[in-house]
Amino acid sequence: MRARLTLLVAATTVLVLLAFLVPLAVLVRQVAQDRALGRADDVVQSIVPLAATGDTTALRLTVEAQTVPVTVFLPDGGILGTPAEATPAVRLAAAQHGALTVTTGAGQELVVPVVGTGGATVIRTLVTEAELTRGVTRAWATLAALGFTLVLLGLFVADRLARTITRPISELSAVSHRLAGAELTARADPSGPPELREVAGALNHLASRIQDLLAAERERVADLSHRLRTPLTALRLEAESLRDPDESARVAAAADQLARAVTAVIQQTRRADPTPDTAGCDATVVVAARVAFWSVLAEDTGRPLHQELPAGPARVAVAADDLAAALDALLGNVFAHTPDGTALAVTLAAHPGGGATLTVADDGPGFPAAHSESPSGDVAHRGTSGGGSTGLGLDIARKIASSFTISPPGPGGAVIRLDLPGTQEPSP
Length: 428
Hints:
By secondary structure, this protein is of the alpha+beta class. The chain has 4 domains: 2-134, 2-Layer Sandwich (Beta-Lactamase), CATH 3.30.450; 137-222, no CATH class; 223-275; 277-420, Heat Shock Protein 90, CATH 3.30.565. The protein is 56% helix and 15% strand. The strands form 3 sheets. A 5-stranded antiparallel β-sheet has the order 2-1-5-4-3, with helices on both faces. The protein has a 5-stranded mixed β-sheet with strand order 7-9-10-12-11, with helices on one face. Strands 6-8 form a two-stranded antiparallel ribbon. A hairpin with a 2-residue loop joins β4 (107-116) and β5 (119-128). The longest helix is centred in the N-terminal third of the chain and has 52 residues, at 2-53.
């Protein structure tokens, strides 16, 4: 924008200067010609009275004293002054007794006849091209230098003016990028034209409004800790009252996990500047633990559960809680949307360069045809569900994966594959 404004002013300045300097240059040339012709005419007119008297001696002295080359053609054929041949203009003036100004290849020829008793005396002078254009080149050079100086001055002023406009715009852009990067304390300094100051004020108001809304949202989420504490406590008490020790331990562990998940969500939400956990985890340990948890429910519902895990650790750049929540969401979908007795399998394959692929497959009815054609599955979009649920489970799994695919293995069932990004092995 700054360059365009400068070019616009430069083009406008050049056009204005051309509109003034070109006619002025033509006028300068015409004035120089008129000045040279006027000087020659004055010389000729000073000789005319002497030619009318017929005093040859005085006429010769006067002609020889002139600085301009003058030739006088006498009636008897004699020539005074600068030697020259009688041109057609001289002969015509002598015959018609009229003054002439003729343009020749050498310049402008002035011829004035003086009629006396003995005949016509013709006075001739030649104004050369050098005399006609004397001083014109220097004047044109001065005008060109003046025009170039004015253009440079215009460019400098235009650049300064453009800078006063573009600098506030650049500052507004920088502040908007900072706000997009979760730096909600960033504010724009209202400066520049009134319109830009109004935009800066609107951006600051928007940032303040976003900050207030996020603070209110954090407080509302934090209230969940108080609302969920009582039912979680009651659930744990119910688990402890179960007669079967194994069943009691399983339900209590589920209640504890739910409490930890809610606490983690609340803590993450209340952070003023939340940052993702990039430390990662061992996917083998996390997947094994969650499969062991769900295997009890699979056994109760008659579902064959097959797991295939790497022999060693599989480091991934995903937090352990996030990976566990994603796998729980996938397995929870299987148990919620497939009939009892449906077989399922969980496979974790480590990548040689880091990362892993997590696959959850089942032999159930699969996803609706409208969703199975998409590489990522439309059902993976947040809030979209093909089975009447909230539509958040697959979105939770999709967020932790660098690549998320849903594909039906055949006429029934579904396969969900997550490519988990790798991370460096922690230093011992």
